[in-house]
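Researcher: Quick one. two chains, 1407 residues in total.
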Amino acid sequence: MRRFLRPGHDPARERLKRDLFQFNKTVEHGFPHQPSALGYSLSLRILAIGTRSGAIKLYGAPGVEFMGLHRENNAVVQIHFLPGQCQLVTLLDDNSLHLWSLKVKGGVSELQEDESFTLRGPPGAAPSATQITVVLPHSSQELLYLGTESGNVFAVQLPAFCTLEDRTISSDAVLQRLPEEARHRRVFEMVEALQEHPRDPNQILIGYSRGLIVIWDLQGSRVLCHFLSSQQLENICWQRDGHLIVSCHSDGSYCQWPVSRDTQQPEPLRSCVPYGPFPCKAITKIFWLTTKQGLPFTIFQGGMPRASYGDRHCISVVHNGEQTAFDFTSRVIDFTVLVEAGPGAAFDDPYALVVLAEEELVVIDLKTAGWPPVQPPYLASLHCSAITCSHHISNIPLKLWERIIAAGSQQNTHFSTMDWPIDGGTSLAPAPPQRDLLLTGHEDGTVRFWDASGVCLRLLYKLSTVRVFLTDTDPSESLNAQGEDEWPPLRKVGSFDPYSDDPRLGIQKIFLCKYSGYLTVAGTAGQVLVLELNDEEAEHAVEQVEADLLQDQEGYRWKGHERLCARPGPVCFEPGFQPFVLVQCQPPAVVTSLALHSEWRLVAFGTSHGFGLFDHQQRRQVFVKCTLHPSDQLALEGPLSRVKSLKKSLRQSFRRIRRSRVSSRKRRPAGPPGEVPEGSTRAERAGLQNMELAPVQRKIEARSAEDSFTGFVRTLYFADTYLKDSSRHCPSLWAGTNGGTVYAFALRVPPAERRMDEPVRAEQAKEIQLMHRAPVVGILVLDGHSVPLPEPLEVAHDLSKSPDMQGSHQLLVVSEEQFKVFTLPKVSARLKLKLTALEGSRVRRVSAARFGSCRAEDYGEHHLAVLTNLGDIQVVSLPLLKPQVRYSCIRREDVSGIASCVFTKYGQGFYLISPSEFERFSLSTKWLVEPRCLVNSAETKNYSRPCNRSSPEKASGQARNSGSQSDGEERRSGPVMEHALLNDERAVVIGVLSEWLWGTASATGEDAPKLLSLYLLLQRNEQDARPGCTMNTHY
Amino acid sequence: MNRSNRHGTGSGCLGTMEVKSKFGAEFRRFSLERSKPGKFEEFYGLLQHVHKIPNVDVLVGYADIHGDLLPINNDDNYHKAVSTANPLLRIFIQKKEEADYSAFGTDTLTKKKNVLTNVLRPDNHRKKPHIVISMPQDFRPVSSIIDVDILPETHRRVRLYKYGTEKPLGFYIRDGSSVRVTPHGLEKVPGIFISRLVPGGLAQSTGLLAVNDEVLEVNGIEVSGKSLDQVTDMMIANSRNLIITVRPANQRNNVIRNSRTSGSSGQSTDNSLLGYPQQIEASFEPEDEDSDEDDIIIEDNGVPQQIPKAVPNTESLESLTQIELSFESGQNGFIPSNEVSLAPVASGTNTEFETCAPDQKLLEEDGTIITL
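Model:
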């Protein structure tokens, strides 16, 4: 009876809960998924990126970040800052314009959408008449000139978006004012370029796609000059003094046109095809920038020889006889050049090239010889190789932090020393209270160490495990690929490299001990590496050990991948984490769980076949335990045996998705039932009948011992606790499987002085079979005060109170369905919380966290942070297992987001909202990392509160996010980007599959790629619950 | 044995009871002391003794006051037989190898007039094949209808007891829509329905659940607003002691209470929406307590044992190994599941089912079943 009462009606507890818990999505780390537009404000020194899902993100100095989402879920096509103002205009692919502004509220700036506008032509005009192709914010700060597909240029007044009919520059008007010989109709078509005269705001340059360029006098409504090119126009650039125009064309050429009032000279001064003479691709954008030294910079995109380099994504920089074609690994979306800002400055003097590629942002230092790249402090390309796992460590000791940074700095020598050039705005966020590391494992066998302390996720160090193994490609080869006299002078830039040499290298589990600097990583082919931090370069052999997890089991055949072949002999390792032991599981199935105890010098690892314990001090195996059920063929044969049913299962999934789409349509709450129009009900009924013919069914069956993958080891845990009797505690290893079994081993670790002489011994002490047989996802031992046992070495470093060894310990076993507390050493059930039985959700991630109170400085409670398969995040109290709060965090369909979630030890968390972005969230009132920043524009007239800048302390006092969730609606980073998840590269891969499956377009043909990608996501979810395949399989 | 013999000699006394035992064509008569019947094993030995069949395995049955042939195989039913025998206890003995299990059961003796001849001449019914149901070794529930007194008549709360793993629960659920009475009038709302019963499964064998029954609750928790997958997970998590409340598609077999004469479901649907949850909480709580507490722990000596609890559990491991008792579907008088309800209640729902009913076969064959 008691259990059905709603928990927590105690008012004091409710108040305390408000002090402890609060849910916020605080910041998005990483690189925006599917960027589609770039904007830059010279005066604010702020960069803006728009995405295909309608988000815009602004970045200034590190820590200065803003984000906005258009209500329409349309791609952002263009972004233009209004000159000298804290405002920007975006153009979406539905031809709508949106005005955004950075407004100061409570001491911090916020990005808000003010107005939106769609250009309307005269009634009956073709849609193309008003289809905007170019936007020119005029320096008067009040006007926007809009070039359209029809060739007309419209003027719109800001901020209200009033169309000024009388200022429209129609193509007819231009035609009439052209001299006789230039008047063919064919010179018009759409407006490709609009530029304001650098000095004279009354002149604008209009470029039409067929090659005509005119300088238009706004006051006199007349053509000042015109230039006629024989080639399709792509873009134009006006030299800073206004005396020269440079146009670029679709044949890969660019032309320089002198401007003088007197002669309307139609001939180019100079025309050249930089990568001729063979046919070249178009130069789509060009910058012509003057320098004090005299020689200009020419920077252009494209123009590569069509036949041999047509597939490259290049931006060329030409200056002073030097030429480099920066070669990007993904499509270039847009680029801009940072120049000296002042309009009065005589020269451009460019100092940095900012390139937005599809998968990363690259900034190149143009001041330093050799044009080295600048390391970005944010917008890190998390997915330069697909992320396969992540691991978070809170509160890193300064010593280790410095050593990691030192190791990383030696890897970054190729970067420019230039300060980050995009440095607008001021970050008001308090300095991060502690140093946090986020480790991401990648498909190519690397582990990246990220500084996750603050708003900017910054790469500190990159560890590659590839050197330990023999792979097909030798890493040294690629370095010398570039010859001396290559033409075009290509140079690879950027870090995005999605191609993995060998998927077996993928990292699946990471465990770092922050006190000792021991790191262990485990991968797809059953490899477990133990690494130690070394500040010097070293050459040594890695000791190899094989762990036969099948032991004496007979008659099994592994049909999966081979194990990796280790490189024999000594290997040279750069400073940083250097491996010294390699344990290879046999069969080489993916490592599914990993634990490291740095004090005992033990590593435990588990796969779908069993688990083992390795003593890395003595470098010998302590024991292995096979957890296989004899009937579990699937686990034995490896992942390949799944392939044969792929086609069938794809078909089934298609049907399933189709049906669930139908049913979800059905479930959408309609308005009042009486008002439903007749047609829609009929459609609904048809949909319903369709559904009834082929319903989604779910089998209701109790889990039996014969389910496959019951032996799959889900979790491993070291604890010093009372395993055998209540008088003596001893080291122990706990393992939980997919079949609801928990094994406990008592360990005997020799004392430090005899550590090398005596072997570590282990004996099985207990085995618990949960009757509900759900996968065990977490094991934790609580000490006498019901506090989770500290990490190894934590007490030795005086960072934690020593655990209470007087009172009786308790064992917490978390399965996907239930939480259970048992007494120790005699295992008897004390408490439980059923999650699945009561609400139908299943535990996906669980982690103990300390929640500090926002009121009392030193008050805190330990609780469990839980993520369910529905995407909800809950806090469950320890040790009484009472649900405290629940927030919905991730969409339940977003299985990859759910699978990628990690919690920190202080109530924050991260999950992937796209392959390249982590969303950071916080459950705690105390630990909240979010951008708080101020952007001021000196020129802004309507902004009259300069005092704000002087009082950042006050500002941080009345924190914007200090309230509870209730202010969620006005928060800009709330639900943003959630819908931006379907990703295209996956859809493309699958397009092929879908053709094969469906032959031709079926009823759902158009949706097929989308469906398939959904299917893969679904599959991944299923596999997440099962063993064998983890995230990397689909990248 | 001695004691029984002694009683046998003292027949005719007031506390004794006449026993007429029949094995094959032979009758034996003896008497038992009604107040001290002794143990079943002693009685079994006595029977073997009086029939002079000391080493033959036999099944013992008796005719109860309703004329049903019921088995005697443990102390409980033996005592029951003795206490209800009036005036005489009629015992029927069959050799185990030629036993006719179908002879046992409710209404067996009265319905089939020839049941005694069947017992007499076992070869009689070899002609017609019959389903061999295992001999009930012990009585235990397989399913039950509970909370009849507090539920609306149109609803049925069924409890399925899952022992061991021999028999699958055996049903499928699907999304669908049903019609509810709301303040705005009739409204179509999404619901969860039983889509299929596995032949031979527990759900089918109880006869209490049928295809197209709407699932309203799982172990006291309303399913409305929950997804199919959520409900699936809830049912599986509760599978050892599953209590589901359904609105049967066929409303003709509702339990009718005195006050109401007809099952008007429009009204009772309303009832179900109001003031309902409070009842649930009270109703099944005690049983739920012991449902899945019995995790097994193996200490280092290797002997499995159940995990002890603060509240000691009377259930032992033995209960897991017991053989299941089951009934043939249809025996309880339920109409086969494909039949469509013609009742005017919940008309929207029913018409839909009518249209889909002919496709029922197709449904079952198409079966895109995604196993969890």
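Confidence is low (pLDDT under 50) at residues 1-13, 110-128, 260-292, 310-372 of chain B.
Researcher: Thanks, that's what I needed.
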